[in-house]
Amino acid sequence: MADTKRQSGKNAVATPNVGGAGTVPLETALSAVIGARVRIVVGAKVIHEGTIFAVCPITNIIAINTAPPPPTPASNTTTNQPGDYHILPISDIRSFEVLSLPLTDVSFDNAVPSIGTVDMKAVKAREEAAIKRLQDKENKRGKGVGKEGQDIFNALERTLPTRWHETSIVVLDSVIIAPPYRVEDCKAPSNQQAALNRVKKVLEIERKKIADRSNKPAVPLPQGPRKGG
What is the model's pTM? Predict the structure, then answer.
């Protein structure tokens, strides 16, 4: 816990005060002076003097740069100061004193590494594209069909416009293949006979490929030399 106080003189001073009314968490007090030169006492006598670079309330640690500040006051910022960084657990801090406040406001403008502007239109476009990919993937998954039916759909969809209509496969928006998805299960209007013949030919080839894969014997795994007699 810390209680922020201002002593007489030009420099602000913040010291922890465990317990008592009007106190604030130590990490809150440290976060309020990021970029300031401070003197921190850790444990009994270990003293770190430097610039607070970052405070993380999640991991309960701070990063302090103990390198001497640049000789030119105008360049005394966290962005161009030489680095000699130390990571300290906030729970180990016994007290801290602000030696000098940062000359510039701490903001994302002088963050290291630099933080660019987020293109929300690009983020939205990526989100919509990801949603569309998931919807397309879901639309290609048959509902209430077996593995063979899904395999046939996947094979046809690679070369022809294909979609599901309940448990039937619709190809070229004109040919319907009903379960169990054989060549003789293909139907089309009388004016779509060319499309029907094309789909039948492709279906026959794909069913043969699927059957060949199913009947192909498994490749035996290599066996090491037998041990023993």
Answer: 0.46
